[in-house]
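To illustrate the input format used throughout this study, we show a single complete record. The first block contains the structure-token representation of the backbone; no residue identities are included at this stage. The design step must infer an amino acid for every position from geometry alone.
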């Protein structure tokens, strides 16, 4: 593989760095309060919310992981992307109004209001761990692999620290507003760069889909796989994919924080649905190119190198710099988001309750310091990920441990009004232990079921625990849970007086239809 990078490409990357860092620091200079640091002053419009959700989610680990998976096993795992619209629809219908009505700053705060402080602490700690050790570290490691493609002499740890430092600087002092505005720029560069690569790759194949199909195994472009398929068996689409997606889009502080910063419920819902449409793009500009790479570069041993190989071998001078800037954009989008959300959790869920008289300035300072500390921790752990079987495998295996009981507390807890604090706490404790047990059995070769199906089983067990413990203990008062449980009027909240084309329910109908059509085409 040609790893040389021209002066033009380097110049494009440097210019990009300075633009993003400059904008981030400029916003940082205007950030004065803790609410501005953690929620952007609750001023975000629907377009910023949607683009930021997309950019923060589609990280470098996503690009490289999806491309690598499409190359080695087919496009089945792409359902994690374009079927994200389903959990986003659930979020827009139910959880956006619940969260905004609750006036929360963190998602674990909602559990404290719905159940008790124990659930808040447990979920907050689990989220911080996942954000730093899984999401951010995975993004840094993926970014380090990309940089090593072009600069082979750099070490993984050096690249990880460099990337963390750049994103950490403006995030520590600019907060969520700096994250969202730089995400908007990064999303544009990311889409443009990947689109150009897709076009160039397809042109190498004379724009012939027949050539693509001829070079790939049977069913490589099918998403519905048999029960014994190692990449994603069909029950996993119904169970694990949707449950993991619900956790990610409705309960993950890393994602939901920009929704909490919306100027009102209408913009929050429009932004969430807009993100659902944007999530269809990766199928065409990241997943399918990974599958097409088999035609031009058969025999690549490491799936994580598929995308960097395409960049270096297919694109001309100048375009390499643009796409690499897009990859760096993806790195910083995920890094800055995880840093900001994790520091928010630490300050709001742990520091503020212990210091009730803390000032706005002190809260902001704590947030900045915490961000810098977390930056160092994630950068230090990132090189360890190379011990796992691939970025995508690493991410999904780690998520499958603690997600199931969290899903139950939110998805069941807002409907089952008998659910109480004891039920929630023991569901988290026992459900997580069960997740760890299944994970350990899988590592020892004693549990062969695909992790997406294991997630579904663990959710079912956790649901039983939640119901049994709640019914065996005292119920919560109706007044205490009134604002934190489902009511039918939540669905139409904020739609009063709107023309039909501004009603998010019509947007949801179009999104759901698009997902269904794609499923039929790729069956």
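Output of the design step:
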């Amino acid at each position: 593989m040609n790893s040389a990078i021209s002066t033009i490409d380097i110049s494009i990357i440097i210019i990009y760095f300075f633009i993003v860092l400059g904008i981030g620091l400029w916003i940082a200079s205007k950030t004065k309060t803790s609410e501005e640091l953690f929620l952007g002053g609750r001023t975000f419009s629907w377009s910023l919310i949607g683009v930021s959700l997309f950019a923060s989610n589609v990280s470098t680990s996503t690009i490289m992981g999806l491309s690598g998976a499409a190359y080695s096993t087919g496009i089945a795992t792409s359902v994690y992307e374009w079927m994200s619209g389903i959990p986003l629809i659930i979020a827009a219908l139910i959880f956006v109004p619940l969260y905004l009505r609750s006036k929360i700053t963190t998602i674990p705060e909602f559990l404290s209001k719905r159940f008790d402080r124990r659930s808040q602490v447990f979920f907050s700690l689990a989220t911080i761990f996942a954000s730093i050790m899984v999401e951010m570290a995975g993004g840094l490691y993926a970014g380090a692999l990309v940089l090593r493609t072009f600069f082979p002499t750099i070490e993984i740890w050096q690249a990880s620290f460099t990337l963390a430092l750049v994103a950490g600087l403006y995030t520590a002092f600019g907060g969520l507003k700096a994250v969202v505005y730089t995400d908007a720029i990064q999303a544009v560069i990311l889409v443009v760069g990947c689109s150009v690569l897709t076009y160039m790759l397809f042109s190498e194949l004379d724009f012939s889909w027949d050539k693509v199909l001829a070079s790939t195994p049977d069913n490589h472009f099918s998403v519905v796989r048999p029960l014994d398929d190692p990449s994603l068996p069909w029950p996993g689409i119904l169970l694990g994919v949707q449950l993991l997606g619900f956790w990610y889009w409705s309960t993950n502080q890393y994602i939901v924080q920009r929704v909490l910063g919306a100027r009102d419920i209408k913009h929050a819902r429009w932004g969430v649905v807009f993100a659902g449409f944007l999530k269809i793009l990766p199928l065409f500009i990241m997943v399918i190119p990974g599958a097409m790479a088999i035609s031009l570069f058969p025999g690549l041993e490491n799936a994580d190198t598929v995308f960097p190989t395409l960049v270096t071998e297919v694109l001309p001078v100048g375009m390499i710099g643009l796409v690499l800037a897009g990859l760096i954009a993806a790195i910083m989008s995920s890094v800055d988001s995880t840093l900001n959300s994790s520091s928010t959790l630490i300050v709001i869920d742990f520091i503020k309750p212990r210091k009730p008289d803390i000032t706005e300035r002190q809260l902001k300072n704590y947030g900045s310091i915490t961000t810098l500390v977390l930056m160092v921790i994630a950068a230090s752990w990132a090189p360890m990920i190379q011990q796992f079987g691939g970025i995508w495998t690493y991410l999904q295996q780690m998520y499958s441990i603690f997600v199931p009981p969290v899903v139950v507390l939110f998805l069941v807890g807002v409907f089952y009004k008998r659910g109480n604090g004891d039920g929630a706490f023991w569901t988290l404790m026992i459900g997580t232990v069960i997740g760890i047990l299944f994970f350990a059995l899988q590592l020892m070769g004693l549990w062969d079921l695909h992790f997406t199906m294991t997630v579904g089983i663990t959710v079912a067990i956790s649901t039983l625990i939640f119901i049994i413990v709640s019914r065996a203990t005292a119920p919560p008062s109706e007044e205490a849970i009134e604002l934190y449980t489902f009511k039918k009027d939540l669905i139409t909240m904020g739609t009063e007086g709107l023309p039909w084309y501004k009603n998010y329910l019509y947007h949801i109908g179009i999104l759901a239809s698009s997902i269904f059509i794609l499923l039929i085409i790729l069956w």
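Structural context for interpreting the output: The mean pLDDT is 85. The chain has one domain: 41-521.
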